[in-house]
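Translate sequence into structure tokens.
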Amino acid sequence: MDLHDLVKKLAIKNESKIVLCVADGLGGLPLAPGGKTELESAKTPNLDTLAKNGVLGLSTPVLPGITPGSGPGHLGLFGYDPLQFQIGRGVLEALGIDFDLGPNDVAIRGNFCTLNEAGIITDRRAGRIASEIGAKLCAKLDQIKIPGVEVFVRPVKEYRLVVVFRGEGLGGNVEDTDPQKTGVAPLDPVARDAASQKTAEIAKAFLAQAREVLKNDAPANFFTMRGIDKRPSIPTFEELYGLRAAAIAVYPMYRGLARLVSMNVLDAGQTLDDQCARLEAVWNDYDFFFLHYKYTDSTGEDGNFPAKVERIEQLDAAMPKITKLGPTVLIVTGDHSTPSKMKSHSWHPVPVLLAADTCRTDAATEFSESTCLQGGLGQFEAKYLMSLAMAHAGRFEKYGA
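Result follows.
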């Protein structure tokens, strides 16, 4: 019996409410030895109060030493083993913009980028162009024709786009063309298996035309491909937990992650205040709420330590809007760590705060990496977080006689 079989066997229904608040990239590092992390530097009176009355720990998104992408990081939080369910980012982005992926579709996440005259990437995100500029560029790319396959190009947000190839005999196992650094040329799409060779050839032909189409559109004069994949078969959230689940996320990728597991993805507005208002408005309609907060990650990737501290404080200020609703279980955590010092995702365990009336409290008086290291939950794989949430919500029967 695997974890999902056990969860389905033990799950029961009641009137409890679970809120999973994911501060993307929450975990951090001090800028110098002996210093404080972003979370430790932030003034978080509301989170600290929850920490005193709850229990803390550290979660490992995948395995020790493995740096996760946002997809594996969130799937783990939702209770899906990220080693068993591997989802390409293209699928998540496509689902996040409500693109209806079919069985013959291969979805690709694209990043507009800047090339110099020698074809070298000088900016991986094309100066973070405005969304309206990205939409116009996608409309141009959507005119490209490739024999034997349908091509769809859709804008996502800012410099992000989705490309979908639809046709028979397309595999989704193709290497990214994004080298993940500047100062080098984009990579060629290379198939990892024979079944994906046709897809790689189509991608190469499409990129050749795209370079010509975008050549005069600097700073967004090309784009790279990431997360090339087909939509997998995955059990739904309600099948596993018996929960009516709502996702309140702004960014398309995270809406896509929620849609992948068949959560009801709601209009979340554009700000954290909008999200909290939406949470209150639908409070009586669902059992589980996934609330995603992006900016702790983006500031970390920018290497902006003070800005990440400020974003954490903004999240803290919103906590009373959540706690006033009276969730049975409130979890605040991240999908991975994004230390400003590293300007990237990292392998470091992620702080976890679980607040419920059934907590066996620990000695923590604040929410931080150092207190989480001493917390009562210890260090655990993120895929077990939903089991803890279900238990504290009284939604599990006893196992065995």
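Note: Residues 107 and 164 are 5 Å apart (CA to CA).
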